[in-house]
Design brief:
CATH architecture: 4-Layer Sandwich
Shape: globular
Pfam families: Asparaginase_2 (PF01112)
Low-confidence stretches: 165-179
Protein name: Isoaspartyl peptidase
Strand content: 15-25%
Number of domains: 1
Organism: Ginsengibacter hankyongi
Mean pLDDT: 90
Distance between the termini: 33 Å
Keywords: Autocatalytic cleavage, Hydrolase, Protease
GO molecular function, one term: peptidase activity
Strand order of the largest sheet: 4-3-2-6-5-1-11-12
CATH topology: Glutamine Phosphoribosylpyrophosphate, subunit 1, domain 1
Radius of gyration: 18 Å
């Protein structure tokens, strides 16, 4: 039996301890623990990596603390549009959705795309129509409303600016409802199969149906039993240009790098050279995990069958 493990992230960026209240930090740590425990419970009961990453991401999509699912930011038009992807490293099957609305858990819709659509990537109204056909749970607009997110959008809605949700622009006393970015999970199950999932609400005030790296297989999400499972978070445009998730896999496959070495090469060298901030989490088929970022912090957690368990926010 392979060592089984799971790693999660809830966004990376300018996360500064001095600008975080103890109460808010406790909320984030508790939300990360709930997600980590949900995914690990699947693995502990002999479940698959794909079900573990889905369970972990669903927990974060249901939290108002993160920019995914319920906590998603507002677009230029004042809407909540969400993206998600999931990939099975055993089969290389993948499913992704972009620009979907009113979907309670976009990661579940991504899985339905993978399993039952005959396609890999659906977007917009077509993806929503497919969700209804598959019986995916919908929620009204009010479910996704956050006063902080709405006020954040109002400040820049009349401009051509957009805002990365993980950039801190207000002191802690005004951050009660501050939500940080993209969420994701990677896992290795007891059979040595690996999987990855990522979900996001994108950028505040995004225009023209903008899509980031999260739902793009190879850019923000990737899994292959031969190498690794990766979920990214950060400035999506740069991660797309770098084909970041797949690049980690390539470095392992063609240059024989370890998971940690490959993650560091991409995040600390390639992305930095492109002026891209953020990070990623990864696992390999031996249950090893990596959590690497070039920003001031990344909401993250890790747990494995050897008893190792950690939750962290800031850079060490």
């Amino acid at each position: 039996m392979t060592k089984f493990s799971i790693a999660i992230h809830g966004g990376a960026g300018t996360i500064i301890k001095e600008e975080m209240t103890p109460e808010l930090e406790a909320e984030y740590r508790n939300a990360l623990k709930e997600s980590l425990d949900a995914g690990f419970a699947v693995l502990e009961n002999g479940g698959s990596a794909i079900n573990a990453v889905k369970a972990a991401v669903v927990m974060m999509e249901d939290s108002v603390l993160f920019n995914a699912g319920r906590g998603s930011v507002f677009t230029k038009k004042g809407l909540n549009e969400m993206d998600a992807a999931i990939m099975d490293g055993r089969t290389l099957d993948a499913g992704a959705v972009a620009g979907v609305r009113n979907i309670r858990n976009p990661v579940e819709l991504a899985e339905e795309v993978m399993l039952h659509s005959g396609h890999v990537f659906l977007s917009g109204k077509g993806a929503n129509d497919f969700a209804i056909k598959q019986g995916i749970k919908l929620e009204p607009d009010e479910y996704f409303y956050s006063e902080y997110r709405y006020n954040q959008w109002k400040e820049i809605r009349d401009s051509d600016l957009y805002q990365l949700d993980h950039k801190i622009d207000k002191p802690a006393k005004l951050m009660k409802d501050k939500k940080f970015g993209t969420v994701g999970a990677v896992a290795c199950d007891s059979a040595g199969n690996i999987a990855a999932a990522t979900s996001t609400g994108g950028m505040t005030n995004k225009r023209y149906g903008r899509i980031g790296d999260s739902p793009m297989i190879g850019a923000g999400t990737y899994a292959n039993n031969k190498t690794c499972a990766i979920s990214c978070t950060g400035h999506g445009e740069i991660f797309i240009k770098a084909v970041a998730a797949y690049d980690v896999s390539c470095l392992m496959e063609y240059k024989n790098m370890t998971l940690q070495q490959a993650c560091e090469e991409v995040v600390l060298k390639k992305l930095v050279a492109l002026k891209g901030d953020g990070g990623l989490i990864g696992v390999d088929a031996k249950g090893n995990a990596a959590m690497v970022f070039n920003s001031a912090g990344m909401y993250r957690g890790f747990k494995n069958s050897d008893g190792e368990n950690s939750i962290a926010i800031y850079a060490n």
